[in-house]
Records
---
Amino acid sequence: MFPLYLRQLPVRAWCLWRTPGVGKTTLGKELAARSGLKYVNVGDLAREGQLYDGYDEEYDCPILDEDRVVDELENQMSEGGVIIDYHGCDFFPERWFHIVVVLKTENSILYKRLETRGYNEKKLKDNVQCEIFQILYEEALASYSEDIVHQLPSDKPEDLENNIDQILKWIEQWVKDNSS
Ligand code: DAT
């Protein structure tokens, strides 16, 4: 995606999120490889540091300790040059991000992707419904300035390529606009 090295610039971060299975990790890792930005997967970070606050039996997953996640990320976020991947966003400080990308996947495609992950019926249904109602897109719009929130399609491999090209252009533009 990007022949750019931005880590030393005063760029804060780009954040990708949406329902599980939409392609955040795929896009985030590829974007990091091509841009030189650092990719951080919040799910992995929480697992490694056990940043949890109990267990949700209904959804069969640990509950994220959001305050500890924010504390853990604060230093590298203030340095900048980070891509954050997570499926929620309302607990991150607004000042952390310059671009917010929300991926969107067609429901039947998303259903198949989540099925292959072995999600239980409730988790599967709720996640697809979350996508149908665009809940995480609304959450992003409520949490960040509309100017920096972008929704991009993530149904097929060509979408991945187009998204990478598009985000690289936004990054280049951001760098131009913010370098004196
Ligand atoms: P997420 O990180 O949002 O949970 P992922 O990156 O793990 O999603 O992707 C879920 C699955 O979908 C994985 O098998 C890769 C595939 N995938 C991701 N982006 C895609 C795209 N644009 N076209 C087709 N398949 C895609």
---
Amino acid sequence: MQNNSALLQPLEPLRRNELERMDLRYRTRPIRIVHIGIGNFHRAHQAWYTDRADTNREWGIAAFTGRHPDVARELGPQGGLYTLIERGPHSDRASILSSIVEVQDGANVTRFVEVMSEPGTAIVTLTVTEAGYRVNADGELNRDDQELRSDVVRIAASFAAVEPDNHNWPTTVIGRLVLGLAARKRKGSGPLSIVSCDNIPSNGTVLRRAVTTFASWVDKDLERWIESDVDFVCTVVDRITPATKIADREIAGKLIGACDVSPVVTEQFSEWILSGEFRGGRPQWEAAGARFVTDIEPYERRKLWLLNGAHTILANFGLQRGLTTIAEAVGDPEGFRRIEEFWNTACRHLPAALDLGEYRAALLERFRNPRIEHLLSQIARDSTTKLRYRVAPIARAELRDGRVDRACAFAFATWARLMIDGYRTPDPVDPNLEIAIESGNPSDALLRLVDRELASSQEFASAVRRAL
Ligand code: CS2
């Protein structure tokens, strides 16, 4: 039998310098945006909005990796180009995006500080996950965090040194950001807007507090400058973007006619709501569908509670049942019933003017898209922090109204059960997690890790125990 693939011509690799000669759309752009934490989500969301909105090619993105440097290795040779596959329930649509013009390993702090201090740079965006902010349950920077404390020492040493030591750069996102801002202040490069794109309520405000607190530990003048010259923008970001599979590379190859080693698959739906100032200017993101609002809070709650809350419940529940994807978990009658109950509770604390019925129906359709293989194991990461933002506020609102909500208690109990049964995934409070599980009363101890107020309610804590 003949091997057909041996007869196929290998595809040419995707390269910016070759494409831009044939098509001006792929020409590079000046760096005006710095992104921290490049992953599939940034490439499917903010980079896509910029690509579509910036038709005059004025806003290039220099992106830095977060936990893993792999994207820098993959996109470097492609000149930052990659394929975005928008996957509907029946078909795929592919485009080559060119808004990212440089990709660096996050550990290349020398380059990071350089682009942060350029006068042309006007915006910094972040997708570093909830855990990357290193704040405690009250939204305050965690003073006991060892890595933050080491970064304070490193930054203080670099300020004092004539020649900063390249081997001793900060390792945390907040530390690096503060170092970059210090360089910008020194160079007199003008105001900057920092845009948090992580699933945290009042994300811009939380980030502002974290950055100014850290700055106050190293230099009071810097703290004052950040307060006066740096804008922190709050956002709601939404686009379901699973991890890329090997088969997606082949699909991308067929659709674009070149070999892309790092395509991204995402759903067709996308939403970006922003609130804040851009004193250094910004792309006309609204041309690509973004919305600017003055009061972002109701939109934050709607998205974090209904979409992300349901995701976390389905992930913990589905993993317990041996399921793999969100589509499978929502297809399970009990999974479906659990999120419907949770949504009924959550909607009591959301403004009806936000078209909640329509929003829920659209979410179900998005979750059920079987062609988006969104892994439960991906969503179950960092569950402690996620439950804190996605479920705890609803349980607390119910308690204030005199009710102990069963759907919320179930959400905590499913996670606790998974943890007690030994399921492990990267989680920032790991050591405490083990201590809680080993304690005489793991249910209460785990609840306390997420939210002290809920843990101190006898009624709620016992509802969680019963649900376990
Ligand atoms: C998910 C989110 O991994 C998770 O925790 O809930 O990444 C979710 O897919 C996005 O927020 C959708 O916009």
---
Amino acid sequence: MSGELSLDFRGQGPLRGRTRVPGDKSISHRALLLGGLAEGTSTVTGLGDGDDIVRTRLALEMMGIEFSGDQIHGGRSRLREPERPLDMGNSGTGTRLLAGVLSSLPFLSVLIGDHSIHRRPMDRIAVPLREMGARIDGRDNGRLAPLVIRGGELHGIDYTPPMASAQVKSAILLAGLAANGETVIREAIATRRHTEEMMLLAGAAISTTPGPTDYVVRLAASELSPFSLDVPGDPSQAAFFVVAASLVAGSEVTVENVYVGPGRAGFLDVLLRMGADITLHECGPNAADILVRSAPLHATEIAGIEIPSLIDEVPILAVAAACAEGTTTIRDARELRVKESDRIATITSELGALGAIVRPTEDGLIIEGTGLSPRGAVHSHGVHRSAMARAIASLVGDATLTVHGFEAVSTSWPTFSRDLGALQ
Ligand code: S3P
């Protein structure tokens, strides 16, 4: 795909039809890692096909795990010391979750990635993994990638992460699978639960006391059994089409088979609060077809315990807020500053370039619903969600918008433009 995309959807009319989005990225990473650890052959269909997922699969292949079609031929005993550094590209989830697995393996490994990965904080996983017994070093006193991990015998810990992060919880749980004694994680605000759900599926001795606050996970060392899984669609990707269909008058779109389980569907609650016309039709465990019709939106407040459940949807929710009546405030979202880019800064500058009035705060954004006038050229800054949010913004405009660096979408959704075009 070329690095520049000119988007000209003037007069293209409403979005209509049924569509699908790529398999959920969070579930796909975990399916590969747990399938790699489970002794035997697991079958996983519907994996996401973005670069992040490819990197996790390649890393496992470099350590001896074999893949054939939808099958993963896994087993802890198959895993070998990789000869070369494992290059995780742009993937924070892949890097941090794999670090958890590597901490429990009796060999040396090196995790590298692109320039964004080498700037993102890794101490959030390195600190608890070291506490469990892993030896982890890296740049800046072990805080930044490349990470050098010498794994081995671990012991369980009782840990309260200082930030709401499913990646931190998952890295510790993946290490805890092979740790002596119990691993306990206490979350002040519950984050997405894919790791817990999928470890249960693979027969791990894991239990949870659910609740939006004081959520506790307990895990004992476990050998995993092979499992079968069909990965549902990614709600973070569905959000782009849900917002697009809400904003473009006369639209009616169904996004099929989307994961709407705990910790991921916050963006739907927010859009419903804003007046969106959204109906869910359950189509499987924690999965639904999402029917959305265009509707006028009004402002809302987004804060507190719902933030982790929509942290990746803020760029597209900001587009919705700019087109809604009134002033939308987003608070308690400091984590946005340590994503692929500082999302508070990029949303402010990029939405500003599209004509919105946006004020950044330390932990969020204030967005005036004065509408967008996308025209001219903007840049994705290599961030997939920025590129896609710009594309959706262009739908509400009356001019051509050029997005430089549009190839960033390949991180999570290589066929995004084609799939959007098919709804027009
Ligand atoms: C993810 C957790 C979130 C999210 C990321 C995927 C996961 O990150 O932003 O895209 O799969 O666990 P944090 O855990 O850092 O909040």
---
Amino acid sequence: MIAFRKIIDVCRAFGIAGDPVRYKTFTDGHINSTFLAVFREGDEERKYLVQNINTVVFKDPDALMTNVVNVTHYLRKRIRENGGDPERETLHFRKTTDGALCLHDGDYCWRIYAFIDNSFTYDLIEDSAIFRSAGESFGRFQRLLANYPIENLYETIPDFHHTPKRVEALKAAVAADCINRAEQVQKEIDFALSREADAGVALGLLEEGKVPLRVTHNDTKLNNILFDETTKEGLCVIDLDTIMPGLSLYDFGDAIRFGAKTAFEDEADLSKVSISLELFEAYTDGYLSACADALTKAEVDHLAFSAKLMTYECGVRFLTDYLCGDTYFKIDYPEHNLVRARNQFKMVEEIERVMPQMEAIVQRIYKEKTED
Ligand code: ADP
Ligand code: GN1
Ligand code: MG
């Protein structure tokens, strides 16, 4: 538990003046620790987003900060050119009083950025119009970064979406079985291994030159979009730490994995876990309305499959972390990662069940968007 005192000290190191008023912890991310800190200067309250970068996950925070600062700088220009509001539509990082992008503090590394007020996130969606807007936001994000110099990006987590390597890591965790959990989860291990043939499909397309390497977000969870309180539209894509060279399929698939489902990511009652074709259609419509003309045929043809691939990969990662003693994802209770893994694998089965419908939806919408 990080105390307000600590957060105030961090704020001072970033040159924030004023009287501390209150703070709040955000609980919707699995990786970083995020706080809102409020200070009063005269009659005005000022809000700051204070974040503790997880240095177990992100081993080179300086490289990470270079990526996000350069990308947000570039985005600000593109957003301004397109008549948008760069203050609210992308992140703004502060420097420390020494001019550094983050504050190294023992095992911790802190950063501060502008809090975007009158915004909120979703962990679960029922209204398809909102998910359509999320698709538009991530499609627009991909489009805005289409000409960003990809060679300038650091790979903040190497092989992040290299699904075959994720499966290898699972096998290694099963073999090591360091806290004796493997026997208890044989069914889940068998499930993961039974789908291994799918793991290399997206990378195979890249090797064959059928899908391009793009600047991708790589963590397109619904709660990584801030929505505007007033318009209820997607406002700002956040959580930019995994921006790296990647495939559009990663971003589309991961967004469907998390957002087009009928239950939370950690719902333990698997009878509630399913894919909503209505939500899938809404996201696809939003996404393709923003970037259909930029996609290759192989990208379009694998959008539906990418939802299965990314759900599978995430299930493999949760299961691996469970077997390794929960060292990567934050957990609220001992079986949390196992519950998450089961939830993902149930979702994989549900996606498989409706794959022909999902493929037909993609082709129909793609045709509509490119004929307009
Ligand atoms: P994590 O990597 O842990 O997911 P995020 O960067 O996604 O961390 O931040 C966690 C949460 O904090 C977000 O889901 C959102 O609710 C909130 N948040 C992050 N950045 C901002 C911001 N600039 N303005 C308002 N809220 C934010
Ligand atoms: C993590 O940081 P957050 O909560 O947005 C993870 C993603 C997973 C996701 C599963 C850097 O995302 O890759 O898909 O949890 N981020 C990192 O919910 O590993
Ligand atoms: Mg997040």
